[in-house]
Amino acid sequence: MKMDPRCTYCLLSRVHYEAELATDDKDKIYRAITECMDVMRNTYKPGVAAGVVSTAVHRKAYEIIENNDPYYNLKELSNSTAQKVYPAAKDLIYQNEPSLKEAFRRAILAAVIGNYFDFGVMGFDVGEDVFDETFMNVFYKGLDVDDTSEMFKMLDNVVYVADNCGEIILDTFVFDLIKKTGGNITLVVRGEPILTDVTMADVRQLNLEDKVDRVLTTGCNAIGVAFDEAPQELLEAFDKASLIISKGMANYETLSERKMGPIAYLLQTKCESVAQDMGLEKGYSVAKLMR
């Protein structure tokens, strides 16, 4: 996905948000915003990929605020909130003893709802105090784009590119269903902390290694996947996958820039730029397969 003019003010809003998470030093916050504006001015050109700009901007912000994980407490909060809703979500997925195909569809829906965990997105906020209610409402509403039937045929060798903490706990329902079909799962997480995204440290803390066949990282703290910084092992995994499952908007912004597939995008369209690029409406619950 290419950078959209609307991304500029959303990105700077996010810089302001994370700077205030890290410090109450007004001068440092001012510096973070102004220097990130300079980075954006130098990187945002017609046709440039959104991930290139956002990665450069957030790296500069982290440098200025002198904190490589300003979202740490929010990541912990997201995980604890997801753990509270987990038992009810499991009951819904396996209610009335569904077929594997139907249980997979429900698990995908639960994982997509988990994508609501995304603190700092301008104009979008689902607090931990209402997430359980939000989960139930969206679950009963269902997916707005539902390609799960086609996805279900492609589960032999899945590469699952994770997004945020919190939602990763709900992603485990999908892992379980893929394993029940006899499929193999490679989980991909960030190489270093960035926003609320899952890292290897989170994988170990949540014992996710037991849920999948192997875990790889993106090799760095880029937004989404920076292919020029990605380990060769990850690139080979993408090439050999029967299906790539991509969680969240940042992964969409970067993976959609590269010819690869089949790839299933699981996300909430939380902004107009991503929704428009996908040919959808803002506010959709999406499980969209692209070949």
Shape: globular
SSE-based structural type: alpha/beta
Average predicted confidence as pLDDT: 94
User: According to CATH, what is the class of the largest domain?
Assistant: Alpha Beta
Distance between the termini: 16 Å
The run of helices and strands is HHHHHHEHEHEHEHEHEHE
Instruction: Quickly count the helices.
Output: 12
Low-confidence stretches: 120-124
Number of domains: 2
Written account of the structure:
- The chain has two domains: 5-65, Uncharacterised protein PF01937, DUF89, domain 1 (Helicase, Ruva Protein, domain 3); 72-290, 3-Layer(aba) Sandwich (Rossmann fold).
- Helices cover 51% and strands 12% of the residues.
- It is built from twelve helices and seven strands.
- It has a seven-stranded mixed beta sheet, with helices on both faces.
- Helix 2 packs antiparallel against helix 3 (50-65).
- 48% of the residues are buried.
- The chain has 291 residues and is an alpha/beta fold.
- The radius of gyration is 18 Å and the shape is globular.
- The model is unreliable at 120-124 (pLDDT under 50).
Question: In a nutshell, what does this entry contain?
Answer:
The protein is α/β, with parallel strands linked by helices and 291 residues long. It folds into two domains: 5-65, Uncharacterised protein PF01937, DUF89, domain 1 (Helicase, Ruva Protein, domain 3); 72-290, Uncharacterised protein PF01937, DUF89, domain 3 (Rossmann fold, 3-Layer(aba) Sandwich). Helices cover 51% and strands 12% of the residues.
